[in-house]
User: Fold these one by one.
Assistant:
Number 1:
Amino acid sequence: MNKSQLIEALAKTEGLTIKKAETVINIMFDAIEDALARGDRVEIRDFGSFKVKEYDGYQGRNPKTGEVISVGKKKLPFFKVGKELKESVDK
């Protein structure tokens, strides 16, 4: 399922116009993105949680040239699946 399919499913289920459903989905994704950018954790009960993980820098190699390069520290979003979702998928 992609974003446009999610919008269509919301519109159909809740009797909304596509435009209103798109606004709802965009607000939800923007709120999650803003919370993660602030370093907050986002938990959606029975679904899972999002948080930002920090990774240390390391020495890597350029795959084309074999040259040693320095890869800096980075932060990436991480999703941990909730128990309910895990069980429903594993049926």
Number 2:
Amino acid sequence: MAAYIIVDVEITDRARYDEYMKGVPATIASYGGRFLVRGGRAESLEGTWQPKRVVVLEFDSVARAKEWWASEDYLAPKRLRQSASITNMIVVEGVSA
């Protein structure tokens, strides 16, 4: 079953975050992931959530998504992101066919 990592990012250091964005796509691809949303304009329709930068990643499974997130490949980029932003991130299962 597909899984999605959904991220809301508040960038605090643009230069460092730009560096992160250059290096992370290859790590995602190496775990079979792909971007579905990568920072496009977001508009709140209900509630109080006011996201800053939304990213949605798709993986084959929750296990695969978590493998990527915990991987050695992503360790250095993750630290860079964490030093350049305030992030909320979840993983969620998709619907089964």
